[in-house]
């Protein structure tokens, strides 16, 4: 369980870093681009991953290219969501995104929809609405507080679907992960180069240094989650539940206590429903 605890800590730490990025004058595009350099190197070094297996099969290319676009895009949206909607709402939306891929499994991958799984999906959808509910004040920032976490919810669900399609095509987790990281890295640095040449955003040592830290924390989250499954091979549901509930609970504590994010009774109900949805799914 130590691995799961570390995975939870690093997952929430990524949200905290993104929350602090604006205060430090960080260019998030440069930070995300650097993040994928670090994550690719760590995937190769610590997981022994090579992209050949993922890149060799033609069936993996469509989902890999989609991942290469979605991964950096969702990182930018994640940063926007943390800034406008807060850590609590963003982390809950991210964790509940697994129900998007669960629903897609019935429609696309031929999974069987049981009553318990349908109940889990239903509770998750209500939980998302409750967590994101705010008293309407109007204005652009208020709109961001809705659409940014909703995009996080949909985007992480789409990413999970793409990883499932890569695995279905025969690529290992490590190969698919590294292949997606490398595509994302190339696309991100093309954007960084264009912005630098057009003088839209000059290269910043601070942003690149922040990206190194972000990449290390992001990969540590993935690594320890994988190690948790390896340490408890006969209890995948325990790992699944501990990780998701842990992030929801810790993210709520950090957001509400550390950053004084205001939560209404409806939001707290949504957090409770999120934990209930994860519990239902765990034992489905």
UniProtKB/TrEMBL annotation:
Keyword Transmembrane on entry: yes
SUPFAM superfamilies per record: Multidrug resistance efflux transporter EmrE
TM segment ranges: 6-21, 28-47, 59-80, 92-109, 115-133, 145-167, 173-196, 208-226, 238-259, 266-283
InterPro entries attached to this UniProt entry: EmrE-like
Superkingdom of this protein's organism: Bacteria
Keywords noted in UniProt: Membrane, Transmembrane, Transmembrane helix
Record protein name field: DMT family transporter
Biological source species: Luteibacter pinisoli
Taxon lineage: Bacteria, Pseudomonadati, Pseudomonadota, Gammaproteobacteria, Lysobacterales
């Amino acid at each position: 369980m130590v691995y799961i605890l570390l995975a939870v800590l690093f997952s929430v730490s990524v949200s905290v870093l993104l929350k602090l990025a604006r205060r430090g004058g960080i260019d998030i595009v440069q930070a995300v681009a650097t993040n994928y350099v670090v994550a690719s190197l760590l995937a190769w070094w610590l997981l022994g991953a090579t992209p050949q297996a993922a890149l060799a099969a033609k069936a993996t290319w469509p989902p890999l290219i989609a991942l290469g676009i979605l991964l950096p895009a969702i990182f930018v949206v994640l940063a926007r969501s943390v800034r406008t909607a807060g850590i609590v709402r963003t982390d809950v939306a991210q964790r509940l995104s697994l129900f998007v891929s669960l629903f897609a499994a019935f429609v696309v991958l031929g999974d069987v929809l049981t009553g318990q799984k349908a109940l889990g999906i239903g509770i998750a959808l209500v939980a998302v609405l409750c967590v994101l509910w705010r008293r309407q004040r109007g204005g652009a920032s208020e709109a961001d507080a809705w659409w940014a976490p909703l995009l996080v919810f949909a985007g992480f669900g789409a990413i999970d679907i793409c990883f499932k399609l890569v695995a279905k095509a025969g690529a290992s987790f490590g190969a698919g992960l590294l292949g997606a990281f490398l595509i994302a890295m190339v696309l991100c640095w093309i954007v960084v180069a264009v912005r630098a040449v057009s003088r839209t955003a000059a290269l910043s040592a601070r942003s690149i240094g922040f990206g190194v830290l972000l990449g290390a924390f992001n990969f540590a989250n993935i690594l320890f989650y994988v190690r948790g499954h390896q340490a408890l091979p006969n209890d995948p549901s325990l790992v699944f539940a501990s990780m998701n509930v842990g992030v929801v609970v810790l993210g709520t504590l950090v957001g509400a206590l550390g950053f004084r994010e205001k939560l209404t009774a409806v939001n707290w109900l949504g957090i409770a429903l999120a934990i209930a949805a994860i519990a239902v799914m765990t034992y489905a």
